[in-house]
Design goal:
Largest sheet: 11 strands, mixed
Helix content: 25-40%
Structural class: alpha/beta
Length: 349
């Protein structure tokens, strides 16, 4: 479950069937009269797995600033990354945007990204981009445990995410293991603690947790008293609070901090495809969204993700990103394939 809406307002629908993306959201364009992908010199095509509303705001501002047309095709992280890999050098995509970084690494490992222009790299601190320079961070989200304060007192909260595998947490917490969000968290655990520790934690998780489809659904379950806590990303809570609060008013967010695996900050990525026929415009778009104007759009919008570029501070409702005390994880080393293998072995997928 994501906070984005099912349609991009003001952007015409493009044909999903052409790409076989049966599970995607709306595939859209900025030009209502256009269809298909942009030809060389005629704008860019973005494969988007980010929040639709955020990407639309970026596109509208970029088009107003540059006059460059942007065509959007919408899907999930793994859906889009697998599509790009399947299409290979024939992909019509110029830019790929994700919510979590493992999908970016998947495309990078297939050798399909061009280097990011140095001017863009310079806008994003090293902790929010991969060491390889093949793509860059465009936003970030923090892991958080949302809990029912009427059921759990502060002194009973887990000191570490790893504690959720202990017997005292049996039946008390929820997660959405099939989603890319949760798999990114497990990817960070694998990178930080290794395979044996990850294997053991997943086995304990299998015994203890309750599965829900989507992070919002897991949070709703806590709010409704079905379960005591849920491991999700922060923005589900803040997004609901900014609306009616009906799914989060009984919920409190808890941050593990202390460089714990549960303090992992997942980087949303953006990259330019090596096969792009509109590379200059694609690089300009990536520079724009990581620049001050693009990051201010993120800060002031409804996604409640963290800005990562051009020294733009987070939305005032959020815990400052420096106070999250996140562990250091190179996004280029997050291994989605190994994670899904381990989660399948543990019976979680």
């Amino acid at each position: 479950m994501k906070l984005r809406k099912n349609a991009l307002v003001g952007i015409a629908v493009a044909a999903t069937a052409v790409f076989g993306l049966a599970a995607c959201g709306s595939n859209s364009e900025t030009d209502p009269a256009a269809s298909g992908s942009a030809a060389a010199g005629d704008g860019i095509t973005v494969y988007n797995a980010q929040h639709e509303s955020l990407t639309k705001e970026w596109i509208d501002a970029f088009a107003a600033e540059t006059g460059i047309k942007v065509t959007v095709r919408q899907g999930s992280d793994t859906e889009m990354s697998n599509q790009i890999i399947q299409e290979g050098e024939a992909s019509p995509a110029d830019v790929f945007l994700t919510e979590n970084s493992p999908a970016m690494t998947q495309v990078e490992n297939a050798g399909l990204f061009a280097d990011v222009d140095q001017a863009t790299v310079d806008q994003v601190p090293a902790e929010f981009r991969p060491s390889t320079g093949k793509w860059t961070g465009i936003a970030a989200r923090s892991t958080v445990l949302v809990y029912d304060k009427n059921k759990i007192s502060e002194d009973k909260l887990p000191k570490s995410m790893l504690d959720l595998a202990n017997p005292e947490w049996k039946g008390k917490w929820a997660a959405s293991p099939t989603g890319a969000d949760f798999q990114a968290i497990v990817s960070a655990l694998l990178e930080l603690k290794g395979e044996a520790a990850t294997d053991a934690w997943l086995a304990g998780m299998k015994e203890n947790f309750k599965a829900y489809k989507g992070n919002s659904t897991a949070m709703k379950a806590v709010n409704a008293g079905e379960v005591d806590a849920a491991l999700i990303y922060h923005y589900y809570y803040y997004g609901d609070q900014a609306e009616t609060g009906e799914n989060s008013n009984n919920v409190t967010p808890y941050y593990f901090k202390n460089q714990d695996p549960g303090a992992f900050v997942s980087v949303s990525g953006g990259g330019v495809l090596k096969s792009s026929k509109n590379a200059a415009d694609a690089q300009a778009f990536l520079k724009f969204i990581t620049g001050q104007q693009g990051q201010e759009i993120l800060k002031n919008g409804t996604s409640f993700e963290y800005p990562v570029g051009s020294e733009v501070e987070a939305n005032e409702a959020l815990v400052p990103i420096k106070d999250l005390e996140a562990p250091t994880v190179d996004p280029a080393k997050l291994n989605s394939t190994q994670v899904t293998d381990l989660m399948t072995k543990a019976g979680l997928l």
